[in-house]
Write a structure and sequence with these properties.
Elements lengths: L3 H13 L2 H23 L4 H14 L2 H14 L15 H12 L7
Helix pairs in contact: 1-2, 1-4, 2-4, 3-4
Length: about 110
């Protein structure tokens, strides 16, 4: 039987408490319930699980969303999400920006 009180406590801890403690709670929950959770969640990739969490959220299935979140936290290492910001500057604006920060004039080539 799933310990659903731990699921709610995890969610509260994750949102406004100690994230390390929340991760420990997630691991404890998943380990204690692996036999019932694995057949449902193990077949999914990380990306599919993230999509599943979103689908649960949109459907208002908060208990399922929390359990899937706990599975993600206990079974996968964190991923640092980074991206590039692309902004196009005209050449004069770029020259002006570089000169402002370097204190040196750029030479035309």
């Amino acid at each position: 039987m799933l310990r659903l009180e731990l699921v709610a406590t995890f969610d509260k801890e994750w949102k406004s408490g100690d994230r390390v403690k929340a991760k420990e709670m997630a691991k404890e929950f998943v380990d204690a319930n692996r036999a019932s959770l694995a057949p449902q969640l193990e077949p999914y990739t990380r990306e599919e699980l993230v999509e599943l969490v979103g689908a649960y959220r949109r459907a208002g299935r908060e208990a399922d969303r929390r359990i899937a979140d706990m599975w993600l936290l206990s079974e996968y290492a964190p991923v640092r999400v980074v991206g590039a910001i692309h902004k196009t500057l005209d050449p004069e604006a770029l020259r002006s920006l570089v000169e402002e920060h370097s204190g040196e004039q750029l030479q035309d080539q």
